[in-house]
Amino acid sequence: MSKLIRHEACPKCGSADNLAIYEDHEHCFGLDCDYHKNYNNKGERKVTMREKKQKVSLTPVASKTMPAPKERGLDSSTVNKYKVTVNTNSDSNVEAIFPRFSQGGEHIANQIRYDDKEFSCEGDIKHAALFGQNLFPEGGKSITVTEGYYDTLSAFQMTGSRYPNVGVMSASSAKKEIVDNFEYLNSFEKIILNFDSDNPGQKAAKDVAQLFEPGKVRILCLQRAKDANEYLVEGWSKEYVNEWFRAPEFMPDGLLLGSDPALLDEIVNYVEPRSIPYPWKGLNNKTYGIRTSELVLMTAETGVGKTSVMKEIEYSLLTHPDLVKEGVGVGFLHLEEPKRKLAQGLLSIHKNKPYHFPDVERTKDELVEAYREVLDNDRVVIWDHFGSNDIEVVLAKIRHMAALGCRYIMVDHLSIIVSDQRDDERKQLDEISTKIKTLTMNLDISVFCVIHVNRQGQVRGSAGPEQVANTIIRLERDIKDMNDWRRNITKLTIEKNREHGRTGPASWLYYNEVTGRLEELSDEMIYEYEHGGNGAGHEFDAYSKA
Fold this sequence. Notes:
The chain is of the alpha/beta class and 546 residues long. Helix content is 33%, strand content 21%.
């Protein structure tokens, strides 16, 4: 067995440390990356590209006009547009240097291609934007994303050197690179994916296309050759442009005939989706918990305590052992409170102390400890929403959160989004609720949306959200009751349960002002509450638990 020497960045997929360097070979253990290289019998490398990579200095972009690599069919203007350095020294085994820039336009890395088709990296390739992204400002009509550097240059040149064209390093790294630069690509009205026409390339194209809203992405699967550079070399530029213009819109697979054996197999071998329990038994008895691909509405009048209920659910998701182990994220779009208050509420639940009360004692060390235990990880994704609440912006944030690994996304609240729009509020509410429901299915995520209702219990202005929701949880609390015990009880009723059909009162939650927690009432206390009792003899029970 050969000896492991060190870990490095992979020259193919760009991972930071998945490439293992051994005495006689090197191999990348990155997901879907097939990079492998053997050394010669003496244990020496065929080329010394790793030594080149270790240079502290970053080779600067070319300061002079570069010639065109004739064997690639490229023009000098294309090469210089992308600031590629073409080797003119016959004694060097370097073929070309492809510069990589940060999202802010700073030159931070290079990928070096050698004569034997091997690559090495210089600089911080992990944080580089897409190849060529620095050349095209966001927000245009369309953009093409091509697999490979020479193919990116070729596609740009064949389409008249006018249309934005950026590149990913390889099919194996494509999804990660797209996720890292999601908002840039999503700013264009149309995205054309021109990955290699082989199986890895087309699989990567479909994986990437599903990150974006339906209708936005076209997939160009070339018919005459595997990639764009082959078209250019063979003189098929006209054919490439024709295929490029006719690239079909990507639509997820989903049409199935009743006679298809796959349907019977799915029925017979169906496995119930995983369900993550709510924090309260009564709610779980009705709903069987929280599932992905579903939209849950929480409705209530203003001031009833919807956000408090939402935070208890959020905390239970953040601390669920299975989700923690798997690194499943939770996305927060709390549009009515600053991120500090959101974080404070979650820490309060963790420590059983209502930090929102100014007279509740707390220390800096205590807050830091709670923060480290709950929020200090990449599973927590919070939208710092200062600015516009535009519907398309909100939808884009949900998609981006899903791309970052969030399977549970909390929107508090939906009403404030449509109230910011100039158009008809009813139509806007119907539109965003329908689009969010579509996202839950396309991205296999669960979305919770808080929404206000009027005094008759109806969603203000529209029945659309209720029609598309899988589950509707109605919150009721008599905020004017003279009795403290009764005034602090919130009743949760299932008004719609598409999956299981069980509706009706589910949980009664008492707000404990000492712990800041919502505690589910026992059957005995529910009976007393529903029959007009005032909790006499029980009002201090919660305090004794603190």
